[in-house]
Specification:
543 residues; 4 strands; 68% helix; 4% strand
Amino acid sequence: MSSPQFQQRLGLFDATMLVAGTMIGSGIFIVSADISRDVGSSGWLLLVWVLTGVMTMIGALSYAELAAMMPHAGGQYVYLREAYGPLSAFLYGWTFFVVIQTGTIAAVAVAFGKFLGVLIPELGPSNLLFEVKNIDLKLTLAVPWMSEPMTFFEKKDFTISAGQFVGVGLVAFLSLLNCRGVQTGKVVQNLFTVAKVFALALLIVLGLTLAVNSGAIEQNTADVWGGITQTPQYAEVSKFAPLMPLAIILVVSGAMVGSLFSADAWNNVTFTAAEIRNPRRTLPWSLALGTGGVILLYILANVAYVVDLPVKGDVAQAEFLDSNAAKLEKDSKNASPEAARADLAAAEDARKQAALLRGIDHARDDRVGTAVLERIAPRYGVPIMAIAIMISTFGCVNGLILMGARLHFAMAQDRLFFASSGKLNSRGVPAIALILQGLWAIVLIFSGSYNDLLNYVIFAVLAFYALTVAGLFVLRRRLPDAERPYKAFGYPLIPALYVGLCCVIALGLLVAKPVYSWPSFILVLAGIPVFFLWRGGREVVRH
């Protein structure tokens, strides 16, 4: 009896939905607030997103050559193995399993629970079910140019909330669902990706029409580029980078952490190459269409933000108006019908003005997308955006789970992961890999440290992206006669530019945001002894 094989059930539309669906999570609705605090003005905010878009597109179009050349399960892991050997591939797979993929799954699943808590507070993170206080766990690292050791991990309390259990339930449900076959997973992915793209597009349309505010536009265009030198991040960086151009490069590099993560995971579709029909043609097109479409939406969303809200907000005045609105809403309950209507109308106006005054940098809980809707309908903006983000995060978690397990399958085939993960079930999917991935993501959910872990791996993510695209040059020299149905756009200049940009940003992170980069660097290095222990003298199987 023949062993189960991967089923080629994914067409161009399905693959494109996988790319777009895993890129769009909750980040686009939130991270612009943090970026604004770092860069201080509309010009730099938009530039950060444009740079992110350019890098993402160049990366995707460069990966397209590798994907068409080697359409095998495992994608990026395979490209690194063929270009540099098993150690570099394992280090990627190690970091991918320990935190990149599972940490992202955990964080996005908990984000689903957080926004469900907006609608049903009993199921949100505010409903604590278990708590241990005064843990006082702190990990520090000495950085040469800092006077005191850098604290890169600190936990004072350990808590378990209802929102975490919602996240656990989501991960368990979607892991088991994907064990039923790639056909089931793709149906869920297509449905939720179409829904989230529609929701994001609707936010953009509303933001560019009904929510436009002339005062915000005037404020944001008054000093398009100057605000960056007035931010706390610039003041911190300028202590060891006194030259303004260098300080600005470092600040922008640090600010791109959020936007790069929001635009990440486009490479995951390469892991599913063995399940894609005509992968040599479909993979390049899905990478181009998926990343291009999402980046266009991201830039338009940020244009909407800067024409609706000032980049710099006035928190004190906004809180005064929110307090006044709450008082009016309370008074309306005991007023006559006519007075109650007047109170509620006044409260609604106050909420609209408060959302405007908070601006992008101080949007409540960083929910910039919600602030845009509150400018239109204060009473319904919060729940509508909560539903939109739940749809977005549900589809994102499904795509991450579906695709991530294929990389673990490829590692197991090389005897660099648990052997059972390299086997397919009767439905043609790596069920054990799906379950192991889900279990580790659940551990990270309960650890409560997934957001810290995600911050720590951005350096590693950039390094592996740069290393993979640099592999184009290695493989063109080593395998000049290999079949290449698609060739990287602008080779060699454009891919070389991408590698250079990744290196500049990664080096900038080492200096400007060491708390994000040094632990990441150490985590990758920790995989070296694990590689030799796991291999145990056995040769890695080559395909």
